[in-house]
Amino acid sequence: MDVSRLLDDLNDKQREAVAAPLSNMLVLAGAGSGKTRVLVHRMAWLMEVENIAPFSILAVTFTNKAAREMRGRVEKLMHRSMHTMWIGTFHGLAHRLLRSHYAEAKLPENFQIIDSDDQYRLIRRVLKAMNLDEKHWAPRQIQWYINGNKDEGLRPHHIDTHHDHTQKKMQEIYAAYQDACDRAGLVDFAELLLRAHELWANNPDVLAHYQNRFQAVLVDEFQDTNNIQYAWLRMLCGDNNTIMIVGDDDQSIYGWRGANIDNIQHFLKDFHSPSTIRLEQNYRSTATILNAANAVIANNEGRLGKELWTQGSEGEPVSVYAGFNELDEARFIVSQIKSWFDKGNSLQECAILYRNNAQSRVLEEALLHENLAYRIYGGLRFFERQEIKDALGYLRLVSHPHDDAAFERVVNTPSRGMGEKTLGQIRQTARSQNCSMWQASHLLIHEGGMKGRAANALQTFIGLITDLEQELNQLPLEEQADKAIQRSGLYAMYQAEKGEKAQARLENLEELVTACKQFVVPEEAEEMTPLAAFLAHASLEAGEAQADSDQDAVQLMTIHTAKGLEFPLVFLAGVEEGMFPSQMTNDEPGRMEEERRLAYVGMTRAMQKLFMTYAESRRLYGQDKFHTISRFIQEIPSEYVEEVRLRSTISRPVHNRFSRATSHEAFENSGFSLGQRVRHRKFGEGVVLNYEGSGEHARVQVNFAEFGSKWLVLAYAKLEEA
Ligand code: ATP
Ligand code: MG
């Protein structure tokens, strides 16, 4: 047996981990040290040397994209298909279990997954039903409370309210929300994990079956597991199965969502004689990038402590660019990408990473302006877009008419002349009869509770869904989607809207049909109808790979989404106080350290070249905010940094990268300042980039959104503040 190929491209420490005898193992190591690579090779080793069947291996990754990649790599090493191996995210695996054992999990066979948006709406409805004022019971906070408890494995009756009035009320809302979900057969994301855990806890034979099956469990990005996930793993492994976890405490970035960094310590205590292997060589980044990132993370306390070095070249310094504002920042980033591309490199080697999703819009516009293709991961998720959710709403109702979330979403979209009053009546009946809104509608019509126009409108809607149910039956998936989009009137509605936005929505709806066409029912969903499988897919995958993946495109995503990935050229945008670290950071203990870990994750995505950019002023929620350079840039020793200045013609006041923003000082008597937004009668809106001369000779350079950069004589330009 030739197993050398499984060990060839590994260093000694990595080999030690890959070829270790069957045992519990922790691989603890910094970014880019080959943890994921070790995990993949270990899986191959287990099959080839320990003779463990693919069927008996379960691997957990953090995103569906990572899961797909992992499967591909194992298959490449083994030269065969690994379809019986379970590789997925915690949520994906939990979903798979619940589908197979819906009855034991006390779920209806056709239960639906609801995303966080649906959950939010449902909570609002529950509050309304309980006559609670949203001003006092903020739905977001309740959502947080419910998910937080679920992540800890707590049902309402487990919660100790300490006889506190507010606590008790929260507990009641949680219980009422859960009732509503159970009645309608809806499962939120946190519920997937909790149910899967309860499934095993309450059904020893089901648990025994999986314990017998999965001899080897492997977990990537372990530092971001939460308590319920940990408990689930613990239960699965029992006393006989072995687990390998890999992780990096410095990359724990989901504490705000309940991840528990202490799980690494728990693992060492709870599992039978675990060994720890540390990897110390980084293969990803240049020495400069690595040193810069190491210097930043060194400011955190209470780390488990890891060394990280590289044999790689020193590389270029980390470039820091101070934009006048976010438009200028975006323009700079795009110009750098353009010159990278013009040198013959590919676009997909470039990633723009940001702290918040909302930052993407300006970047997108700058890319569009330069005709550079881009793809967004996460965030503006395809399946989360309004029109897509509308269309999916119809499909959901057709496949499961008791889905109240879907009912609410589409009953009056497009408008069928149904007012709030009618809807209120339906909700009220559903509550009092303890039934779904679908059933309530039938009751209201047939038992005469509703009359006249309202009843007609409702009847039309019910007729439509019933007809669709008949018509879609037996059609291929994409035709089902197409029919639903057309027959529901959604397409016509957006067609009538006109304008670019509506056009984009129509394109998205068309794209949905394409997505259905390309959809391959995954093996675990073979029992389901293609439509049900697609709807589950849409909820779970929510756009992780929305765009056409063959196209060469710049990659845009939040730093959270970039976890585990690597790119030759990386831009970290918006690295300024108030953005990153974010405004909220100061309010919560431990948040700053988590924020710094996020900076570490962001910086260590870069292989060859890292840019960190910020904007001295940024328009947020309609207001210009002035920000200073982020502490995370200042924590990098200056030997690794180079400040990028604008082209030499610029006569803007030179300012040190550590100085406060000076460019907003109004220039002499002109009434305008650098970076300011202005409006020109003919050229529209733009940003002041530069100025020269004085008095009647004063000229100003403005970068117009539509017309690009122009020099104008101030005396004639008649610029106004925008
Ligand atoms: P992260 O913490 O960001 O998830 P990681 O520790 O999982 O990083 P990998 O993604 O597995 O690191 O590896 C980083 C890069 O280094 C990859 O491109 C990988 O192929 C490469 N690499 C890992 N080990 C070796 C090795 N022994 N020889 C050559 N390249 C390696
Ligand atoms: Mg990794």
From TrEMBL:
Chemical reaction(s) catalysed: Couples ATP hydrolysis with the unwinding of duplex DNA by translocating in the 3'-5' direction; ATP + H2O = ADP + phosphate + H(+)
InterPro entries from the xrefs?
A: DExx_box_DNA_helicase_dom_sf, DNA_helicase_ATP-dep_UvrD, DNA_helicase_UvrD-like_C, DNA_helicase_UvrD/REP, P-loop_NTPase, UvrD-like_ATP-bd
UniProt: ATP binding residues: 29-36
Q: What class of enzyme is it?
A: isomerase
EC number(s) stated in the UniProt entry for this protein: 5.6.2.4
Domain of life the protein comes from: Bacteria
| Pfam families to which the protein is assigned, alphabetical | PcrA_UvrD_tudor (PF21196), UvrD-helicase (PF00580), UvrD_C (PF13361)
Residue ranges of every copy of the UvrD-like helicase ATP-binding domain listed in the record: 8-286
Domain UvrD-like helicase C-terminal: from-to ranges: 287-564
UniProt key word Acyltransferase: no
Gene3D superfamilies hit by this protein: 1.10.10.160, P-loop containing nucleotide triphosphate hydrolases, PCRA, domain 4
Arranged from A to Z, the UniProt key words for this protein are: ATP-binding, DNA-binding, Helicase, Hydrolase, Isomerase, Nucleotide-binding
Q: Which GO terms describe its molecular function?
A: DNA helicase activity; hydrolase activity
Presence of the UniProt keyword Iron-sulfur in the record: no
Classification via CDD domains: DEXQc_UvrD, SF1_C_UvrD
The UniProt entry's sequence similarity note says: Belongs to the helicase family. UvrD subfamily.
Give the protein's recorded name: DNA 3'-5' helicase
User: Which organism is this entry from?
Assistant: Alteromonas ponticola
Lineage of this protein's species? Bacteria, Pseudomonadati, Pseudomonadota, Gammaproteobacteria, Alteromonadales
